[in-house]
Design goal:
With 374 residues, the protein is α/β, with parallel strands linked by helices. The chain is built from 10 helices and 12 strands. Strand 2, helix 4 and strand 3 form a beta-alpha-beta unit.
C-alpha cells in the first residue's frame, strides 16, 4: 500500500500531532497569554517598564526552575545557541577549551573555538553517533564544554563538574535539555540554551545560568584588550541582563511564550515534575521499540538515552521515511531523523509540553502504519 493511501483511524491519532525537536509544540495557553499583552506590552519600548517586567519575570522564573545557587545569575541576549558559541569563544574561553562532540551541536562549538586565531587549538573529543565521549582533564584547559542533550542523536550526558585545573569552567549546551531534564545547577558554571524546545517558544534569543566564577572570567577576558564585537561581548550581556533588557530590541513573542511556560512548569512542581513527565514519555517509546521486531533504540546504552529526544532505528525491511510520510499525511508531523545523520530512523521529541498520552497514541499510529506498509 502506498503511504498516501494510509488513513489512520481517528481513535488512534494523538490529540496533538506535533513531535518536532524544534521548533516544538506550543501550548494554547501560551498564545492566550501573548494575546493578553496587546496593547500594553507588544509594540512598546524594550527600555520601559512593561517589557523589562516581562524580561524580569522570565529571569526570575528560570532562577526558580533551576534552583539557582547563591550568586548565580540568569543572562539573556539576542541570537540563539550558535550566537552563544561565538560569544563564548570571544568572551569566556581564556586560552584553550576541551569539547565533547557526540553529535552535531557539540562538534559545532568545537569548530567555532578552532577558528578563533587568538585561542589555542581546542581538544575535541569525539565519539560515534549514538554514543558519548568523555573528558580527559588536562593542564591548560580553562573551559570544558559539552551538550547536556544532543538533539541530533538522542544521546544524553549527566551534568557533572569537570575536575581540571583550578579555575576551569564547566560549560553546558542545554538547548534541548533545559526545562525537561533535572540537574544540579552547582555542577555547571554556564548552562545555556535557546527556548524553542522544552520551553515551547520561538528562537532568536539565548539564555544562560552563570556562576560567580563564570562572571569573573567574563569580566577578566573582556577587559584584557581582546577585540570582541559588541554583540558577542558577554560583559554587555551581564550589564543588560541585570537591567532586564537586551542590547538590541528583543522579539517579545518568544519571551511571552516562555514566561507562560515557566509559570506552568513551576506551578506543576518545577524541574522534577518536568523531568518525570519527559521520562514517562520517552520510556513509552523506548519500551515500544524494544518489543517491536523491526525497530530498536538507536542509542544502545540505556544510560545514554535521552529522555527528551528519542531516536529509533528500523531494519532494512522498513523504510522509515515512508512511516514519517504516512504519519505526516495524517497530521502527525516532524518525526523525520536529523538530516545529517542519514539513518533509517524516526526522531521524536518528548518535550515537557507534549502529553505522555499523545506519545502512547503515537506508538499505536506507527503500528497501524507498519501493518499496512508491510
Amino acid at each position: 500500500m502506498r503511504m498516501a493511501d494510509i488513513s489512520i483511524p481517528t481513535d488512534l491519532l494523538p490529540a496533538d500531532g506535533r513531535f518536532g525537536c524544534g521548533p516544538s509544540k506550543v501550548r494554547s495557553e501560551q498564545l492566550d497569554f501573548l494575546a493578553s499583552l496587546q496593547p500594553r506590552v507588544l509594540g512598546t519600548s524594550h527600555r520601559q517598564a512593561p517589557v523589562k517586567d516581562l524580561v524580569g519575570s522570565v529571569r526570575s522564573g528560570l532562577a526558580e526552575l533551576f534552583r539557582a545557587p547563591e550568586g548565580y545569575e540568569v543572562l539573556l541576549a539576542n541570537g540563539g545557541a550558535t550566537t552563544f558559541w561565538d560569544s563564548a569563544v570571544h568572551s569566556l574561553i581564556e586560552r584553550r577549551s576541551q569539547h565533547l562532540a557526540f553529535g552535531e551541536f557539540g562538534a559545532k562549538f568545537g569548530k567555532a573555538a578552532a577558528a578563533a586565531p587568538f585561542l589555542e587549538a581546542p581538544d575535541v573529543r569525539s565519539s560515534d553517533a549514538g554514543s558519548r565521549s568523555t573528558f580527559a582533564p588536562a593542564e591548560g584547559i580553562d573551559v570544558y564544554a559539552f551538550p547536556h542533550n544532543e538533539t541530533s542523536t538522542g544521546v544524553m550526558a549527566p551534568v557533572t563538574r569537570v575536575a581540571g585545573d583550578a579555575g576551569a569552567l564547566t560549560v553546558v549546551d542545554a538547548t534541548s535539555a533545559a526545562g525537561g531534564i533535572d540537574f544540579d545547577a552547582s555542577e555547571a558554571d554556564v548552562y545555556y540554551f535557546s527556548p524553542q524546545k522544552n520551553f515551547a517558544s520561538d528562537g532568536g534569543i539565548w539564555f544562560a545560568l552563570v556562576s560567580p566564577a563564570a562572571i569573573e572570567r567574563i569580566e577578566r577576558v573582556t577587559s584584557s584588550g581582546r577585540y570582541i564585537p559588541e554583540t558577542l561581548n558577554l560583559a554587555g550581556a551581564i550589564e543588560n541582563s541585570r537591567k532586564n533588557q537586551t542590547l538590541n530590541t528583543p522579539a517579545l513573542a518568544p519571551l511571552a511564550m516562555m514566561d507562560e511556560q515557566l509559570r506552568w512548569i513551576n506551578g506543576q512542581g518545577g524541574l522534577a515534575w518536568a523531568a518525570a513527565r519527559t521520562a514517562e514519555s520517552s520510556n513509552v517509546l523506548y519500551d515500544w521499540a524494544e518489543r517491536t521486531a523491526v525497530a530498536t533504540p538507536f542509542v544502545a546504552d540505556p544510560a545514554h538515552r535521552s529522555q527528551v529526544v528519542v531516536t529509533i532505528d528500523f531494519n532494512d525491511s522498513v523504510d522509515a521515511s515512508a512511516i514519517s510520510a504516512a504519519l505526516r499525511a495524517n497530521g502527525i508531523v516532524d518525526t523525520e531523523p536529523y538530516r545529517k545523520l542519514g539513518r533509517n530512523q524516526l526522531r521524536i521529541a518528548t518535550f515537557t509540553a507534549i502529553e505522555p498520552d499523545d506519545v502512547r497514541a503515537l506508538t499505536g499510529a506507527i503500528d497501524y502504519v507498519l501493518e499496512r506498509l508491510g
